[in-house]
What does this fold into?
Amino acid sequence: MTFGFGDLKKGNAIELDGEPYFIVEYEKNKMQKRAPVTRIRLKSIRTGRVIDKNFSGYDIKLTPAIVERKKAKYLYNDSDIYYFMDEDDFEQYALSADLVEDVSAYLIDELSLELLFYENQPVSIELPITVDLEVIETEPGYKGDTAQGGTKPAVLETGLKLMVPLFIESGNVVKVDTRNDTYVSRV
It folds into this structure.
């Protein structure tokens, strides 16, 4: 089964050179009296690496990748192995640190997330859009101290460092956007 330009959608999983990718964005350009060029930005499901591919011609043929999503909870890590449990059948999966390194700053006990499977093997993790984390260390904010735009650095319980508003103190729980590592609100 293959699909062409009309079937492309952001987030579709395709297989290219034996590797699974998600479509991040795509566009088709047509110049006068020339075949159209389709540009597709792809994100590797296994590594998270983003690549750009160009296809020329009227008919591009891409093979869909069969990627399965399962709701899971993060359990714990033991040195370089991270353990997750399927929320439906309670089966446990172990993922190596290299598959988890991009999202490890958000992994707290019992965090609900999605495991992505390709060829019946867990290959990636999809985090929720926001995660609640406790502030472990931050400087005190002083009234009227807005020389830095009203923010200050903070270290969260997982080691993640980000900028928070001046009123946030150590011990507060904050909501963090996992897509761009930014403060959203105090919980």
Summary: Residues 14 and 64 are 4 Å apart (CA to CA). The two ends are 47 Å apart (CA to CA).
